[in-house]
Amino acid sequence: SKPGPVVINTWPFADACKNAFETLKNGGSALDAITDGTSTCERERCDGSVGWGGSPDENGESYLDAMIMDGETYNTGAVASLRRCRDAAKTARQVMEHTEQTLLVGDLASQFAFSMGFGTNQKSWKKNNCQPNYWINVTPDPRKNCGPYQPIGQKLGMSEKDQRRTTQIRRLVTNKNHDTIGMVALDATGKLAAGTSTNGLTHKIPGRVGDSPIPGAGSYAGSAGGAAATGDGDIMMRFLPSYQAHESMRLGKSPQEATSDAIARIRAAFPEFSGAVIALNRNGDYAAACHNIYNNEFHYMAQSEGDQNPKEEIA
Ligand code: SD4
């Protein structure tokens, strides 16, 4: 019997899972499921940490990272630091389908998005941090984030110049500050795809790109299955954990072994990092592994043939 359709995604983002699975049930491709599922989170602005207006940088501006990858052809599209446009996942899909290129960044990625017909009603973004009129076209949420922020260097009494370079904030990833939807889908014809969407890390240095739009880091799909990652992207991207998990599955490991191994490699060098990896193989088996997540429990969603609703799983 055929294993598909199956969809899994990071964190308890149930509507994203449900919509992606619905797409598969209606005969949509794995790629369509990833686009629909990750876009659902962008629209809902899942916990303020996916989609427009959340996790502002030090200037108070939000921007978006997203990618999509086709496990059949290895075609990939991604955008990083996408500004003034809310449709990151759909723009990534357009990069994949309408260009020979893989990753577009910043304002030029936005220009591509606008040229493809995506856009927003946001007027030009002003640079005045925490000015009320700045937020009108953005969202009320970053205003909240602006208040309590104190650069770590300031807390440590560093000079202003040093402070400007020292913005690393070590955070424990919890169910309150998780930032990324990562999704893997297997469609009824046995094709696989994976993707991500996020607004990244709060109070990042402007220009910072996370792991989410980097193929092999944020997600990966190939002949054996797919994987996606969430967590401390600046650390995790150094280990390409989604590629690593796929490679393990390609060599015959189970999704459980593959995700545990990908996490273990990062933990060996950075015992304090926080993060999780999910994986789905072409037989429809899936698993996740995590490190240093709040309560040491990583919640993710899965829906397979026969499930009326997405199931919340715990790794
Ligand atoms: C990033 N990996 O931009 C994302 C953030 C995240 O849980 O997933 N946090 O680093």
Instruction: Write out the strand line-up for the largest beta sheet, numbering strands in chain order.
Output: 4-3-2-6-5-1-11-12
Q: Supply Rg.
A: 19 Å
Helical coverage, percent range: 25-40%
Tell me the quaternary state.
single chain
Strand count: 12
Indicate the mean pLDDT.
84
Our estimate of the beta-strand percent is 15-25%
Q: Topology as H/E string? A: EHHEEHEHHHHHEEEEHHHEEEE
Number of helices: 11
Overview of the molecule:
With about 325 residues, this protein is an alpha+beta fold. Helix content is about 30%, strand content about 20%. It has eleven helices and twelve strands. It has helices spanning about 15-25, 30-45, 90-100, 105-115, 130-135, 140-145, 150-155, 160-165, 235, 240-250, 255-270; strands at about 5-10, 65-70, 75-80, 105, 180-185, 190-200, 220, 225-230, 275-280, 285-290, 300-305, 310-315. An eight-stranded mixed β-sheet has the order 4-3-2-6-5-1-11-12. Strands 7-8-9-10 form a four-stranded antiparallel β-sheet, with helices on one face. Strand 11 and strand 12 (about 310-315) form a beta hairpin. Helix 1 packs antiparallel against helix 2 (about 30-45), helix 2 (about 30-45) packs antiparallel against helix 3 and helix 10 (about 240-250) crosses helix 11 (about 255-270). The protein is globular. Mean pLDDT is about 85; it is low at about 120-150 and about 165-170. It binds N-hydroxy-L-asparagine. N-hydroxy-L-asparagine binds next to strand 8. The site of N-hydroxy-L-asparagine has 13 residues, from strand 8.
